[in-house]
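Notes from the 1:1 (GR / supervisor)

We went over the backlog. Supervisor wanted to see one worked example end to end before approving the batch request, so GR pasted a single chain during the call. The sequence is below; no edits were made to it. Supervisor asked that the structure be written out right there so they could see what the output format looks like.
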Amino acid sequence: MGFSNIFSYIKLRAVDAYNYCADGVWNDPSHSFGVKLIKTANLAVNSFLDKNIQKQASALTYSTILAIVPALAMLFAIAKGFGFQNIMQSEIFRYFPSQSTAIQKVLSFVDSYLTHASEGLFVGIGLIFLLWTLISLMMSVEDSFNRIWSIRQGRSFYRKVTDYTAIFLVLPILIVCEGGITIFMATIGEKSEVFSPLITKLLDFGPILLTWLIFAGAFALVPYTRVRFKFALISGFISGTAFQILQWLFVSGQMYVSKYNAIYGSFAFIPLFLIWLQLTWVITLTGAMLTYTAQSVFSFNFQSNINKISNKYYTHVTVVIMSLIVKRFCTGDRPYSAAEIASSHELPHSLVIKSLNSLTEIGYLNTVEEEEDNDSRYQPAFDINKMTVTAIIEALNSHGDSFFLKSFDTEFNELFNKIESIYDSHPESDILIKDL
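Structure output shown during the call:
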């Protein structure tokens, strides 16, 4: 075999491998570790480059800018009540070393905010505005996570208010406790020459470990569905590490932005802070996608086929899914969740979700919320003795807006009626399109 033949063979195999990793892997039903790893890596890259992820990150960046001062104001107000505001401030600077200039500016706004918030009528109005700004940010984050998990219905408004308020009340206490432990460990290290190097390394590792846990907790708790913590922990490790690398890049790169400072002057920190914030949200949303992928990686099988699925085949799949839910209802067992239908019958999760959403929209299914696992389950919406195959197919075919183009509908009303009669009696009265 000549050199050119060897090169052609290697090139052909490389192209085949690329095509398999980029697209063909989703048509591979194998559950081997290698296939799962390729699918996870595929989704990680596509998620990071996904325009929707970028747009969501931009929207969350805007929401964060609006909420950052009220959020820090609440954290410092609670810390001040315990007398730990100095620890809180030092811990924030320690967590975000690359944004020390931005944090200094924000903290000056926080001091002004707290000063005015304690005066007269502004106390009540300011508190309401503060809480609503924070809750709105968390609602945006939950909506983004739910969109990644293909969840249409999130927490109730009451649950959102109570859960998010609890988070913002507990968070400063945890930060203060972590700061107290850091001071305690540092004191021990100063008194003990034996343990001092070890304690120093542990203190340096503390923020990294906390970053991993914060990301993992967000990936596990924010989506309104049941998330297996081991997958959230893996994604938390990846996202937390990426975030630490981002921090290092911004810290080490600040010496190279002198020209940037010459252009923007004292405002130079603003565009740099926005870039950092945007990239942080991209990392966060990519981590959420990785969690979803790791938990249900085989749900993306045949995704290209699903995107081009025929109406007839989609209708058949949807009717079968409806029959599974009705049979489960007849036996009196626990209602199906989307994940259970997908895993039990080896169906792509996205296709199951699409079918369930269609059945819910046409009024054939109701969702049952179960607080213990934050998972939506489905049961028939009315008497199953009145559900027929023909009725559900007609409901699916006719679902959506129609006859809203008034002038067009009026002009071709007679033709519409003829098409409808042909459709109802097909093939007896079928005619050529040119004869319409």
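Supervisor's comment: The CA atoms of residues 31 and 395 lie 36 Å apart.
Batch request approved.
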